[in-house]
Input
Amino acid sequence: MSEQLSQRLNDEVLIFDGAMGTEIYRRHFFINTSFENLVLSSPDTIRAIHRAYAEAGCDVLTTNTFNANRAKLKSFGLADKVEPICRAAVALARECAGEKTLIAGSVGPDNDPEVLREPVRALLAAGADFILFESVDGASGVRAALECMKECDCEYVISMVLDDKGHGIGSGDDVKNMLAEISGAKHLPVALGLNCGLGPEATLHAFERVKVLGHLPWIVQPNAGEPRKIDNRTMYMNSPEYFTTYALRYVALGARGVGGCCGIGPEHIGEMAHAVRPLARGGSRSVAVVIPAAKTEEKLPEAPLAERSELGRKLAAGEWVTSVEITPPVGFDVSGVVEKAKICRDAGVDVINLPDGPRASSRLSALVTAAAIWRQAKIEPILHVCARDRSLIGLQAELLGCACEGIHNILFITGDPPKLGNYPFSSGVFDVDAIGMAAMQKNLNAGIDLGGKQLGQQTRAVIGVGIDPNAIDLEREYRRICEKAEAGAEFIVTQPVFAPEKLLSFLDRIAHLGLPVIAGVWPLASLRNAEFMKTEVPGVFVPDEIMVRMAAEPDKEGQKWVGIAIARECVAAIRDRVNGIQVSAPFGNVHTAIAVLH
Output
């Protein structure tokens, strides 16, 4: 049995193609025509669609065989054409595919395994790399697909059509019942999928529900959605940009394959592929940093944690740490952030937290900002270093620059993809992720550079990493924080916490790592700010009861103080379990952050 699909889903995020039926319809073939038979009667049409998807950057092309079974073809007088249609469909897709492109043999839904068995056999005989059961609706459809595959030694995917509550759109079956059927199968699918349904937004809600169920990879392929009323206008929110926004969210939640269904065409897939590939490289798996082995005697002894910085001393002594996050300026005038840092220093804050291009924005160098704060405000910064914008060589230069400027507290983050920011045409580098950067810094602290050569002196960095206790895929988050600890992490900073119980539960699980944890806290500035955090910021979970509390205040000033009160309550709930607090300054207002700490 070929294992191409399972291996590639493990190694990378795969780009699937979009709709076939709606693309055929756009070419003036109407519903009184068998779309499947066009592989025989109008092969140039199907070839052109496949070629457009291939040029858009697809890793997987899907055959035009959704309804290529006797039951569906009978109404067109083509019941005896299953085998030639499947053979021609695979050949056309293969003709347009690249060397590494996989061919998915599409099989539409039916509750009779005998109906499904004939096209499955024909597609495999014609050379399809795997079978894709599409739009499966309900437990009976799942059973039919499983029964069909009992005797087939090949990879296959079961893709379901669900509403935003996780129920089959036609059957009403709970997805848990469908997955229960799958869990008992002897020959399991290599992945599960969501396709068609009610559009990108509803599919996101469905994926959030089903992602935590089972252990198989997920492939997400929404349709273009339904029209929406906006300011009394009826609008179709199915632009390539809109679709891409949701595709990025699917990948951020752990999808291993993304594509489209009805209404999603090559232009959507091309836009999405351009945006997803950097994110897939940056976040899909750990990227190891291979440093040539150095003899033990070549390494210099690392400076004790307590001697590297004041933050290191506090962490080593188990003392409480307070931090305020200030974002570097958009221009090159640092006077404003320096003044804010002085206000924080005078209020007793221990360190200033400095993001590095948050949400893929372009701002003044975080290292330059950190150096200015350290020299002029006399308060230590925690500098974020992001993998998105620098190659390995550039990253090492940045870390050596930190040592030169006396910036010793560093938080390593993989980073948001460029598509999320104001410069979507920029390319993400992602040579390495946070795990690899921690390993790089660990070696620099022992005087060994990226090439395994001696520096003659060692850096004195305190190595920080992030965790997301709100992650949909907590297994992946747990695995990665363990890898970060093994790579050399010495403290942890969390994503903003609004639900203390989520953080406390995750802290129980990682207690064996023995790493000090600084909890992120975000005082909500207004109801609108709360809505933005809830819906737009990955890794942030804002409970509904907090939204109700914010909405109860009629004006922004009242909402601001409710946000401060909620943040204080969060600090009180977790204080005994963490080593410190990092408070964000919403819209640069450090007085709000200080109000939380006091």
About this structure: DSSP finds 24 helices and 18 strands in the chain. The longest strand covers residues 130-136. The two ends are 63 Å apart (CA to CA). Residues 282-287 have pLDDT under 50 and may be disordered.
